[in-house]
Amino acid sequence: MHPSRILKHERVRSAQHKILFNLPFWISTGIAALISVFYNKLFMICETWAHTQAHSSVILWTAPLAVLASFLLGHFISRESIGSGIPQVVAAVELSQENHPFLKKLLGVRMIFIKILASSICVLGGGVTGREGPTLQVSTAVFYQFSRLWPRRFPRPQLPAMILAGGAAGLASAFNTPLGGIVFAIEELSKAHISTVRTAVFQAVIIAGILAQLFLGNYLYLGDSNFGTLPGEVFYQTIIIAGIVGVLGSLFAEFLFRFTTWRSQKNFWLKVFLTALCGALLSLTIWFCGPSTIGAGKTVMVDLLKNPTGPVDPLLPIARIFGNLFTYIGGVVGGVFAPALSSGAALGQYLSSLFGFASMKLMIMVGMVAFLTGISRTPFTSFVLVLEMSDSHEIILYLMLSSLVANFSARLISAKGFYEKAAHGLIKQNASAQPITETV
Predict the structure, then answer these.
(1) Fewest CB atoms less than 10 Å from the CB: which of 224, 388, 402, 423?
(2) In angstroms, how far is the first alpha carbon of the chain from the final one?
(3) What's the Cα-to-Cα distance from 246 to each of 55, 152, 249, rounded to whole Å?
(4) How many Å apart are CA 277 and CA 327, to the nearest integer?
(5) How many CB atoms are closer than 10 A to CB 10?
(6) How far is it, in rounded angstroms, from Cα 70 to Cα 135?
(7) What is the structure's pLDDT at 11?
């Protein structure tokens, strides 16, 4: 058969169509993963410097300056970058159904640069923030921008599919948790229409995971956690810890939402004053609670899991919770995802010590799942993330139980999670495609 006839064969043309249809997902994922690796390296350098200054008085004045600088960068250059990034992605998924004009700002190129720069500056000065939520928004923006640039003569991917895949790929590359990316896309981002885009999500997650491992190695976010034989009483202990921490996580989320919503309605100079006040309160928290306050909290989690029965510092939960609280409500560019995990870990250790529970290592991980569930109201994502980050499959039932208990107890405070409510507020605020005042 002549080569030209082979190229025109129905099966060959069908294969070409499928390749061209999936090609934008593959290329977008590759670019997003490389940016995520760069962001990870930059953020780690900044956080490491902050830790080296943790015992110095320098951090007491760099922390409020960093919070203020992060807010001002976001306010004057890209207000869509202010906040976690996950509410913005949730909002983008909903707005993508009609290709809303606000997407051009919400997922703009300017936002990408400011999201990375301002969050890195925040943690450089000692702010308590994370890069995981911002990575989701950055990754989603890459997918969105590539969908706009994709040549019209080729099969054009559906915008909702690109945005959904971008969010999933962002989470997978941020935590090196491919399964967590898929579950998050199903549970938080997609709601009803996952069946139409599942292939794109799976492809994006797999490619992002492979590229992240290629450059960062096949690492576990929290290291390898091994558990021995657990006594029978850990079931009721899990329920107790998860119930308490779930309520605390929900209270934390409710305050974040109400304060940031109230703050977004104020004028610029009042926002500056509130940011300066929050920076001062952050410095007081660092001075009162110690250097464990600063940073995203990964080192806190790793240290607790390595030595769960070590000395219990009652100030550690206060440091992690209030450090992240004052940083976030200061209007910075940065997230609460990783700080929420570290807050839960500190609460899990402290409460298990207070109640005399023996399996403190397990309770630390239960606290991580429960606090994140209380904030996000995504129980399956929470336990899958912690499971993948630590490779602790022998305690999967306890993590599942803790996520369900925390989700139930958190509903006593609010029926919806922080990300969902913040996303709906963002959509409502920009329904007419007018410039936003501030992102929560």
Answers:
(1) 224
(2) 62
(3) 32, 48, 5
(4) 10
(5) 7
(6) 16
(7) 56
Provide the pLDDT for residue 83.
93
Q: Is the pTM of this model over 0.85?
A: yes
CB of 282 closer than 8 Å to CB of 45: no
Residue 437 pLDDT: 44
SS3 of residue 41 by DSSP: helix
Q: How far from 330 is each of 323, 357, 371, 429, CA to CA, in Å?
A: 11, 37, 21, 20
How buried is 132 (Cβ within 10 angstroms: 0-12 exposed, 13-18 middle, 19+ buried)?
A: buried
Run of H or E including 261: helix 234-264
Radius of gyration of the chain (CA): 22
Cα angle value 210/215/216 (rounded, 5°) = 95
Angle at 309 between CA 306 and CA 314, to 5 degrees: 105
Q: How confident is the model over 353-362, as a mean pLDDT?
A: 91
| Distance (Å, whole) CA 410 – CA 253 | 10
Q: Which two tokens stand for residue 255?
A: 């305050």
- Sign, CA dihedral 37-43-46-52, equals negative
Give the C-alpha separation, 92 to 104, whole Å: 10
Question: From the CB of residue 428, how many other CB atoms can be counted at a distance below 10 Å?
Answer: 9
The predicted pLDDT at position 353 comes to: 94
What number is the average pLDDT over the span 372-399? 85
Query: Three-class SS of residue 175?
Result: helix
